[in-house]
């Protein structure tokens, strides 16, 4: 029998994952809106790649925590 807290944590975890994917999309759209190819390259190196690494790491952590939450049953 699962508890309400598991469902609540799962709901918030899924919301976090959706927000993380949306943030990745906004980040890539911001990079593409640069005025020149040189500015796009600078945005990619200085902002997009480090932020993408952090966001993907958080996404992987959230998926892992959700799997661990449900594997205890």
Structure description:
This protein is mostly helical and 73 residues long. Helices cover 88% and strands 0% of the residues. The protein has two helices and no strands. The chain has helices at residues 4-32, 37-71. Helix 1 runs antiparallel to helix 2 (37-71). It starts with a helix and ends with a helix. 0% of the residues are buried. The model has no long low-confidence stretch (mean pLDDT 93).
- Estimate the helix proportion, in percent: over 70%
Largest sheet: none
Order of helices and strands: HH
Radius of gyration: 17 Å
Number of helical stretches of at least 4 residues:
2
**For this entry, what is the oligomeric state of its chains?**
single chain
The residue ranges in which pLDDT falls below 50 over 5 or more consecutive positions are: none
Helix- and strand-based class? mainly alpha
Report the portion of residues in β strands: under 5%
Q: What coarse outline follows from CA principal-axis ratios?
A: elongated
Features:
mainly alpha; transmembrane helix; 0% strand; elongated
List the helices and strands and how they pair.
Blueprint: H1 4-32, H2 37-71
Can you summarize this structure?
Keywords: Membrane, Transmembrane, Transmembrane helix. The protein is mainly alpha-helical.
């Amino acid at each position: 029998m699962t508890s309400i807290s598991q469902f609540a944590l799962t709901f918030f975890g899924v919301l976090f994952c959706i927000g993380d994917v949306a943030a990745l999309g906004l980040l890539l759209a911001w990079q593409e809106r640069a005025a020149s190819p040189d500015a796009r390259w600078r945005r990619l190196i200085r902002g997009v790649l480090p932020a993408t690494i952090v966001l993907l790491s958080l996404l992987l952590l959230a998926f892992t925590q959700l799997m661990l939450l449900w594997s205890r049953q």
